[in-house]
Amino acid sequence: MSQLRKLNIQFRLLLCAHHSFRM
User: Fold this and answer.
1) pLDDT tens for residues 1-23?
2) Distance CA 2, CA 16 (A)
3) pLDDT at residue 19, as a whole number
């Protein structure tokens, strides 16, 4: 469960970074 949560956070961070890069 902890691993899944970590993956979710990493995915969210990546998505945020991608959005910022696009902007």
Assistant:
1) 799 999 999 999 999 998 887 76
2) 21
3) 80
Residue recorded with tokens 């979710």: 8
Cα torsion angle, 14, 9, 4, 2, sign: positive
CA–chain centroid gap for 16, Å, is 6
For 9, 10, 14, 15, 20, the CA distances from 1, given in Å and listed in that order, are 13, 14, 20, 21, 29
SS3 for 1-23 is CHHHHHHHHHHHHHHHHHHHHHC
